Amino acid sequence: MVAADCTSTRGDAKGLITIGDKTIRFYEATATLVEQRPATATGFAGAYHFTGEGQEWDKVVTLKRSGDTLTRADDEGNFSYKRC
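The chain above was modelled as a monomer; its predicted structure follows.
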């Protein structure tokens, strides 16, 4: 979300996310894909199961790419990330 998320050596890159085949890893949570939704050429949506800090929850997440920018949308809002 900010440039320091890509270069932090103190482990405090709170805006850094790592996207895998079926997971999204956040600073203090991991989301695992439960159900894939229809994809587009530049986007993907799915229902995810989240775990983190002793809690569990579910939500739908939409990811859209435009160049080196990734936008994540869910029920909490829209968040933009730059590729590291």
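The first strand starts at residue 18 and ends at 19.
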